Amino acid sequence: MAEVPTVRVGVLALQGSFKEHVSSLSKLDNVVAIEVRTKEELDSVDGLIIPGGESTTMALVAQRWGLLPELRSFSAKRAPIWGTCAGLIFLADQASGQKEGGQELIGGLECAVQRNFFGAQINSFETQLPAPPCLLQYGADRDTFRAMFIRAPAVMSSGPQVEVLAEYKLTAEEAQAQGRSRVTVAVRSDHLLATAFHPELTEDLRWHQLFVDMVRQRKQADQKAGEQSRVDVTATSRPPLTKDLPIYTR
Amino acid sequence: MAETQKGTFAVKVGLAQMLKGGVIMDVVNEEEARIAEEAGAVAVMALERVPADIRKDGGVARMSDAAMISNIKKAVTIPVMAKARIGHFVEAQILEALDVDYIDESEVLTPADDVHHINKHNFKVPFVCGCRDLGEALRRIAEGAAMIRTKGEAGTGNVVEAVRHCRAVMGAIRQLQTMDDDELYVYAKEIRAPIELVRQTKHLGRLPVVNFAAGGVATPADAALMMQMGMDGVFVGSGIFKSTNPSKRARAIVQAVTHYNDAKVLAEMSANLGEPMVGIDCREKGFTSYAQRSE
């Protein structure tokens, strides 16, 4: 058996559900999960998760600390990035339903997203969606996954290079209001993964496994190409002050 | 395919989880809401008068005008919260019908029921409630609150009560973790909280829902203090729009909550903010405590 290389996965920790992502990642083998707030921390990781939260807040804080160009160059190196919910908005080439004056995006993912597609919180929901083949490799016995949509965005259209991993069939009422019967809620394109829902709020670790494998493959490819491993920053993250919230089943 | 379910407890707690590490700001009109959004607030609390003015004006404070809440909803894309009086489940029904994203069952408004709180399980919209100690927090969660905040003393610009309530909750949880499981029954009785939630809290080492600081936070340092004490985020009420430079102060508090552990950043955020709101000493004669209006 070949040794499985350890990868460092960062979670952008400006605001939102970053601790939940760190907690999910730390349940997987051969993964070091760190919170990323600075350029130095970003330079030390092999892949990055942009968590759920308020995309306007994250954009503003990232901009204030000059992180946006750093995030764009991280993506330009084709280092894997996974955006959940607000993170999906960050990665999209186009986002509608933004605040007045718009917001800064990282871009790179050839799709158009509608922010807050389902409306106010009372329309937030959870459901079971069919697991795509790339998820079934981590547990073929579970052919669905639990998807939590919290004031969630949706992908309205995507380019030819973008692989659709999951779709949500709108309820009759939603279909009536939106003039369409389904929307895309998970996509993958080269080094980018994006989901409108929140795997970090569930016990299902398969989406995290999928992303970690994307990071590992990328790292192995880089090492073959002779690229030096990234700067090793050890004393980066502070000890956790708050403990994990429970995961609520229905 | 399993059915779609709205308003599950996981979905209610989920929105609070997305607000963590953020600042929720009180606003009284669309213009203030826009300033708050522009400054990086994760949500706004729409109300007719900020707590400092409710204190000044006296009288009965009620749910805000429905049109005013709707207008604020139209002005911003971030979540909009609104306050209902304690026990006033019809105000809550109205707020749910207005599509607000979170309801604050708040002691800042004059309580409508001085014994019972709203049965929050009856709603799809999630609720946040205030607390002064662990027992009060767990009673609210038992009633269906999906998010907790300290009560503090709203409208005072004085963080002392928020600190007291935060220490009471955190200290009780630390004490709980040292207890034998056999001792939990009497402890639950003593703090007047359901045994299941007491057990869960001991197991988790924290409240089982998101826990924000509120009631007296006025500066970036106040906000960072609450974060370093282990809170998940911060409500700022009168502290922003009762100061001389609301936009700058709002931005500074947002940055302070993200970088709460970095004193250099906090120093930068504490520079040239203009006058803060005038504070009130909670020990002054004639001071009305809002925190003690419910238990």
Automatic annotation (TrEMBL), chain A:
Signal peptide: none annotated. GO terms for biological process: pyridoxal phosphate biosynthetic process; pyridoxine metabolic process. Its EC number is 3.5.1.2. It is an enzyme of class 3 (hydrolase). Residues 221-250 are annotated as: Disordered. InterPro entries: Class_I_gatase-like (IPR029062), PdxT/SNO (IPR002161), PdxT/SNO_CS (IPR021196). One of its GO terms (molecular function) is lyase activity. It catalyses: L-glutamine + H2O = L-glutamate + NH4(+). The keyword Hydrolase applies. L-glutamine binds at G53, E54, S55, R115, I150, R151. Residues 221-230 have a biased composition (Basic and acidic residues). Keywords: Glutamine amidotransferase, Hydrolase, Lyase, Pyridoxal phosphate. The active site is at C85, H198, E200. The keyword Lyase applies. One of its GO terms (cellular component) is cytosol. It comes from the Eukaryota. HAMAP family: PdxT. PANTHER family: PYRIDOXAL 5'-PHOSPHATE SYNTHASE SUBUNIT SNO, PYRIDOXAL 5'-PHOSPHATE SYNTHASE SUBUNIT SNO1-RELATED. Belongs to the glutaminase PdxT/SNO family. This is glutaminase.
TrEMBL record, chain B:
Pathway: Cofactor biosynthesis; pyridoxal 5'-phosphate biosynthesis. The active site is at K83 (schiff-base intermediate with d-ribose 5-phosphate). Keywords: Lyase, Pyridoxal phosphate, Schiff base. The keyword Lyase applies. D-ribose 5-phosphate binds at D26, G155, G216, G237, S238. GO terms for biological process: amino acid metabolic process; pyridoxal phosphate biosynthetic process; pyridoxine biosynthetic process. InterPro entries: Aldolase_TIM (IPR013785), PdxS/SNZ (IPR001852), PdxS/SNZ_N (IPR033755), RibuloseP-bd_barrel (IPR011060). GO terms for molecular function: protein heterodimerization activity; pyridoxal 5'-phosphate synthase (glutamine hydrolysing) activity. D-glyceraldehyde 3-phosphate binds at R167. It catalyses: aldehydo-D-ribose 5-phosphate + D-glyceraldehyde 3-phosphate + L-glutamine = pyridoxal 5'-phosphate + L-glutamate + phosphate + 3 H2O + H(+). PANTHER family: PYRIDOXAL 5'-PHOSPHATE SYNTHASE SUBUNIT SNZ1-RELATED. Belongs to the PdxS/SNZ family. NCBIfam families: PRK04180.1, pyridoxal 5'-phosphate synthase lyase subunit PdxS. Catalyzes the formation of pyridoxal 5'-phosphate from ribose 5-phosphate (RBP), glyceraldehyde 3-phosphate (G3P) and ammonia. The ammonia is provided by PDX2. Can also use ribulose 5-phosphate and dihydroxyacetone phosphate as substrates, resulting from enzyme-catalyzed isomerization of RBP and G3P, respectively. Also plays an indirect role in resistance to singlet oxygen-generating photosensitizers. This is pyridoxal 5'-phosphate synthase (glutamine hydrolyzing).
